[in-house]
Write a structure and sequence with these properties.
The protein has 197 residues and is mainly alpha-helical. The protein is 63% helix and 0% strand.
Length: 197
């Protein structure tokens, strides 16, 4: 079974509370929670930034220690738990954490990452049809999402796993077309003509 290339979530420093405490009329308590969450996010990001040095087990332990500071239903904490298990090669353990994070309303930018990483996890668990269905739903709902190209790349991998090489190559080429202004039309035509026969 292949290991994920990199299950680390993309580090996001936006300086605006990462989805917590937005809106009008902040109370003092809201500000305190926003500050606390910002501090927690910075410490999580620091663990991921140095993850190559201590190794998988130490990174998992460090993330779990930080996750323990948050409520059990905190979607970002659940996402970090999933990512750390993916990073450590524990895909079967990661899946329920991804699903719980999404079910508890994980916000962007982590929501898109969770969907793509969950799809990769499902593929690594030899469940490519489920991975493909998840990515198809994601792309149908948000075709302009910043991670749409990444989703299509993983969709191509899932198709290839299922023995649909032509469909896999077509998926990858169609994702590439927007980045080929000079040859996009030709690549689109060639991709449409691909056939496994």
């Amino acid at each position: 079974m292949s290991r994920p290339v990199d299950a680390r979530p993309a580090i996001c420093h936006d300086g605006h509370g990462h989805g917590h405490g937005h809106g009008h009329g902040h109370r003092h308590g809201d500000k305190t929670e926003e500050t606390r969450m910002d501090d927690w996010r910075q410490r999580v990001d620091a663990v991921w930034a140095a993850a190559d040095d201590p190794g998988e087990d130490a990174t998992l332990a460090a993330i779990d220690a930080l996750v323990a500071e948050r409520p059990a239903s905190d979607p970002e904490a659940l996402f970090e738990s999933a990512s750390a298990r993916d990073f450590a090669g524990l895909e079967a353990d990661a899946e329920p954490f991804y699903r719980a994070a999404l079910a508890h309303g994980l916000a962007e930018p982590y929501r898109g990452q969770a969907i793509v990483q969950l799809a990769s996890t499902l593929r690594n668990l030899d469940r490519s049809p489920e991975a493909l269905a998840l990515l198809r739903d994601f792309l149908a709902a948000e075709p302009e999402h910043p991670l749409a190209d990444a989703a299509r790349a993983f969709a191509a991998l899932a198709l290839f796993d299922d023995g649909m090489a032509a469909d896999a190559l077509r998926e990858a080429l169609e994702a590439l077309v927007p980045h080929l202004p000079r040859y996009g039309r030709a690549v689109t035509a060639y991709a449409a003509a691909l056939d496994d026969d």
